[in-house]
Design goal:
The complex is a heterodimer of chains A (about 250) and B (about 400). With about 250 residues, chain A is α/β, with parallel strands linked by helices. Chain A has helices spanning about 45-55, 80-85, 100-115, 120-130, 150-165, 180-195, 235-240, 245-254; strands at about 5-15, 20-30, 35-40, 60-70, 70, 85-90, 95-100, 145, 170, 200-205, 220-225, 225-230. Chain A has one domain: P-loop containing nucleotide triphosphate hydrolases (Rossmann fold, 3-Layer(aba) Sandwich), CATH 3.40.50.300. Chain A contains 8 helices and 12 strands. The longest helix of chain A is centred in the C-terminal third of the chain and has 16 residues, at about 180-195. Chain B is an alpha/beta fold and about 400 residues long. Helices cover about 15% and strands about 40% of the residues of chain B. Chain B has 5 helices and 16 strands. Classes of the chains: A alpha/beta (about 250), B alpha/beta (about 400). The interface of A and B includes residues 98 and 108 of A.
Chain lengths: ~250, ~400
């Protein structure tokens, strides 16, 4: 069993007015086989958590730790983290002009596995994943994220999740901007990933909608850069009914 | 990355363009060069002139002044299809000057005056030649400056490819004339793959016949200083040119490309697309894209674009598009110029998929050049270009060669 362990994580970003602390001591443990939903209002630091775990240079970790099976993740470079088994599905995937999806996927797979995938099985696998996500086959020859619709970008992220098959997946608002059909397709992909067993999911979302299709084991409410409350799936239902208002009031009072 | 700077003046804004065009006596801009074959008619440049202001004259080894041009330490190799005539001919050959070119600057005029022979390539009328004709000039010594003159004649309705391949060590000036007869189709590549100590000043001029099409490709990787001027005009309506360029400047290199499309016939088309990468201290690229649409050139269409990717600190890219329009009755005209730094978000995205930093950079640079390389459309050349980009990335940024 693998464990992703976040302890007292403090993260700040540079602003015009100097460093601004966004995460103020986050504690979170995700074990393989578990799906955790992180919910919270805009600006609560959810995405910062995701990018900090992935190692985006914009975010400076000023305190605390992140360990993957007792190995210090914060000591690793961005690509080392990915090769260690972490994956971040981004809210705004980046265009890479002139680089085809097929070249990108093959290069990433080779990097993750340490060897090039066998051509025949690889092509079959790519086609199968794309078919499952209702992606046209011509996707492979398009440039990475260039001219993709919002929904296509998210499917492409989930295709990478399935093909690279990490131990822990962090999904940063993968549901945002998706219509109901695309949401189902994407959720099915995440569920296929989880169903293999031994995989952990950290699902970051603003809305409860996607939790109807992906059943979380734990729900954490993020407010003001730390976990304000946690519970099971029933917590999401309460948020659906009540919204985040009472947390922001509590945050303001503290 | 910096934003594109498009100024489309297509059909939608035709009225505005027409209104902006002066119809009275206008002072002719520097886009109406007064050429001369006589070197003495061209003053020794001081560096303040519009056409010289980007070029480091000190590094020209006196080429712009009076350096002798009698160096002959070079070899020429020709690989041509039997249908193509390629060889050295005397200065009295009618090919000389057949493009109508008149030297536009002192170095070009000096090269013209100095050469008593020229290298002539003729693709006969209606010949369709698949095999590229390759002329390889290899310099053996940069000490003594030399001069050359090349004329490529694509006779009417012929179709072929000609590659001019420069390598080795040299101080070299030359004029290259490219003449397309009516309906001819020619792909012409000029590859500046010089050693680090080379200085090369070349003036290329194409004359495009009625309904003829030229794909003119410049590839510049090597040399201490390369000043590459290419111009074209049209001898009849319906002519087309695609000017494609790819350059990669390393520390200390000055690579300058100056393009001039003279739309002097109606219903002609031009498309200029140059891309460059820069890395290392003192790497400097200059791109000047001049387009002139003369009053007679109704119904033309033109677009020019220059994109630069700055990979490291200490490099500088100058990019100056100029569009001069004397008639508003055109189909379309526009330009774009961008110079951007390496995109950290692209790197992060690729690296977050496990791709190591050097490999990620390589992917981004390959991707940046990919569309230009694809447009060149000659497989063996494409492979060589990709290999050259690869070599640039591995030697100077210290990235290991990809396996």
């Amino acid at each position: 069993m693998a464990t992703l362990e976040i302890r007292d994580l403090h993260v700040s970003v540079d602003t015009e007015d100097g460093a601004k602390e966004i995460l103020r001591g986050v504690d979170l443990t995700v074990k393989s086989g578990e799906t955790h939903a992180i919910m919270g209002p805009n600006g609560s630091g959810k995405s910062t958590l995701a990018y900090s775990i992935a190692g985006h240079p914009k975010y400076a970790v000023t305190g605390g730790s992140v360990h993957l099976d007792r190995v210090d993740v914060l000591e690793m470079s961005v690509d080392e983290r990915a090769r260690a088994g972490l994956f971040l599905a981004m809210q705004y995937p980046v265009e890479v002009p002139g680089v085809s999806v097929s070249n990108f996927l093959r290069t990433a797979k080779t990097a993750i596995d340490g060897e090039a995938p066998k051509l025949r099985t690889w092509v079959k696998q790519v086609n199968e994943v794309m078919d499952n996500l209702s992606m046209d086959r011509d996707f492979a020859s398009r440039n990475v994220n260039e001219g993709f619709s919002g929904g296509e970008k998210k499917r492409h992220e989930i295709a990478q999740l399935e093909l690279l098959n990490p131990t822990f997946a962090i999904l940063d608002e993968t549901d945002s901007g998706l219509d109901i059909d695309a949401l189902r397709v994407v959720a099915d992909g995440v569920n296929r990933f989880s169903a293999q067993g031994g995989r952990g999911v950290l699902l970051i979302t603003h809305y409860t909608r996607i939790l109807r299709y992906i059943q979380p084991d734990f729900v954490h409410v993020f407010v003001n850069g730390r976990v304000a409350e946690q519970g099971g799936a029933e917590l999401a239902e309460r948020l659906e009914a009540e919204g985040y208002d009472r947390y922001s009031k509590a945050g303001a009072a503290s | 990355m910096a934003d594109a700077n498009p100024h489309p003046t297509g059909t939608a804004s035709r009225d505005n363009v027409a209104a902006a065009v002066e119809t009275g006596d206008v002072v002719l801009s520097h886009l109406h060069p007064q050429g001369s074959f006589e070197p003495a008619d061209h003053a020794v440049p001081t560096g303040l002139e519009e056409i010289w202001r980007f070029t480091p004259l000190k590094r020209l080894r006196g080429l712009h002044d009076d350096a002798t041009l009698t160096g002959d330490a070079y070899t020429v190799q020709v690989d041509a299809d039997p249908a193509v005539t390629a060889g050295s001919v005397g200065a009295d050959d009618p090919a000389r000057g057949s493009s109508g070119y008149v030297p536009a600057d002192r170095i070009s005029a000096r090269a013209w005056a100095e050469t008593d022979r020229l290298f002539s390539v003729v693709i006969p009328r209606e010949a369709v030649v698949d095999k590229p004709t390759t002329i390889s000039l290899k310099g053996l010594d940069a000490e003594k400056a030399g001069a050359g003159h090349v004329v490529i004649t694509a006779e009417p309705f012929s179709r072929s490819t000609v590659v001019l391949d420069y390598s080795g060590s040299a101080t070299w000036v030359d004029n290259v004339e490219i003449v397309l007869g009516d309906g001819a189709q020619l792909t012409f590549l000029s590859v500046q793959d010089w050693d680090d100590d080379a200085v090369h000043v070349t003036s290329q001029h194409a004359s495009i016949g009625r309904d003829a099409a030229l794909r003119h490709v410049a590839v510049t990787f090597g040399g201490d200083l390369v000043r590459f001027s290419a111009s074209c005009d049209y001898t009849g309506p319906g002519g087309e040119i695609d000017m494609l360029g790819l350059y990669f400047a390393d520390a200390g290199q000055h690579l300058e490309h100056r393009l001039f499309v003279d739309h002097d016939a109606p219903h002609t088309r031009s498309n200029v697309d140059y891309k460059g990468a820069l890395q290392g201290q003192g790497a400097h690229t200059v791109w000047i894209g001049n387009i002139l649409i003369r009053k007679v050139a109704e119904g033309i269409e033109t677009y020019e674009s220059n994109r630069n990717l700055v990979l490291t600190d200490g490099a500088r890219a100058d990019s100056v598009p100029n569009l001069e329009i004397e008639t508003g009755e055109i189909h379309g005209a526009g330009h774009a110029s961008t110079t951007g730094r390496f995109d950290d978000e692209q790197l992060f995205y690729l690296r977050s998929r496990g791709i190591a930093e050097d490999e990620a950079r390589r992917l981004v640079v390959h991707g940046f050049f990919a569309d230009i390389i694809r447009k060149i459309g000659i497989p063996e050349v494409q492979e060589r270009l990709l290999a050259s980009v690869e070599a640039e990335l591995s030697t100077t940024v210290g990235l290991p060669v990809a396996t």
